[in-house]
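Homework help board

Subject: predicted structure for assignment chain

Our instructor gave us this sequence and asked us to write out the predicted structure in token form, then describe one feature. I got the tokens but I'm not sure how to describe them. Can anyone check?
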Amino acid sequence: MAMDIPRPELARKRRRKRILYGAGLVVAVAVATLGLSRLKPAPPSVDRATVWIDTVKRGNMLREVRGLGTLKPEVVRSIPALSDGRVEERPVLPGTAVKGNTVLLVLSNPQLEQQALDAQLALKAAEADYANLKASLQTQYLQQQASAATTEASYRQAELQADADKKLYEEGLGSNINYEKSTANAQGLAQSDRMAKQQLAQYVELIKAQLAAQQAKVDQARALAQLKQQQVADLHVTAGMDGVLQELDADLGQEVQPGVTLAKVVDPNQLWAELNIPETEAKDLLLGQTASVDTHNGIIGGHVIRINPAPVNGTVAVDVSLDGALPKGARPDLSVEGTILIEKLTNVLYVGRPVHAEPESTIGLFKLTDDGKEAVRVPVKVGRVSVNTVEILNGLKVGDQVILSDMSAQDNFDRIRLE
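My token output:
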């Protein structure tokens, strides 16, 4: 009968092998894990057709700023209500070409119309009082004139009688008493004649003063009547100038008060552009700089005539005078896009303007590799910026190709693959 004989050395060998195999497996796993941890992630792929690629160049660069804006009329007539009234008619709608005498609104004001009628009647009454006073004073003047003439005639007759008595006395044919009596009578009538003439002259001045006072009343009544008539006429609101009705701020049946703006009329042939330039780009703007304004139906040249000193909502308002003929379709309040030339840079390194590029800043751009299959992020120092281009101070050289599109989705990668 066979018997199993224990062999301890074999069991030890098998246990030793298992330990060695386990240690080797652990080491292999550790090495593999370390190798995998040191592997770089594969670069993400980007469709070449979806990105904007430009080549770095050297040469002349136009430094420009751009802003959106609107066309504004140079001549604007704001038409206020001159008196109370109720809107009865609106014969014209905004956008209509109008003449100076075109009626825009018809207002009604029965109280004002009654006041105008009363003022007209008061004028007629004042004119009648003037005519009556003038006639009365004329009659009195004629009476005074007749009295003065009678006195003068008596004086002339007494003077002749005195001369006759003097001759008779000198010839011894008349008495001294008659001569003295006639002389005294003539002297007395001479004094009366002078006084009558003075009174007549004073009466003329009195007549002038009384007629002037009454004429002032007539003039006052006429001015009031004319004012009321003009106010009634102003109930027919007219354009006052040739142009286009831009606004009409009154509805049928609306009660309007004096001073309220009812309408605006503009001259569509005299326009200027108001551009809103970003505040960060407006520091080098100067009066007289050349500009161009795109009306989306043509481009017209111009120059800067005003720069608003106070920014509003991050932009600076810049007024541009238009130097050429207006393109077809140009009209007030039309949205436009304007470009202002700041300066011309010569012999500079430049490229198209990347998204979010700011002047005097350092940005990261993806530069294409020599084979053009990949792009590597590089730091680029930007100098002066323009609408479509930027000056390169450091980080790129002539001939380099860079991606200008927004690459914020790849912020975590320094390399991308182009497909």
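Reply (TA_rk): Your tokens look well-formed. For the description, you could write something like this. The chain has three domains: 48-69+282-304+338-418, 76-109+236-266, 111-233. That's the kind of observation they're looking for.
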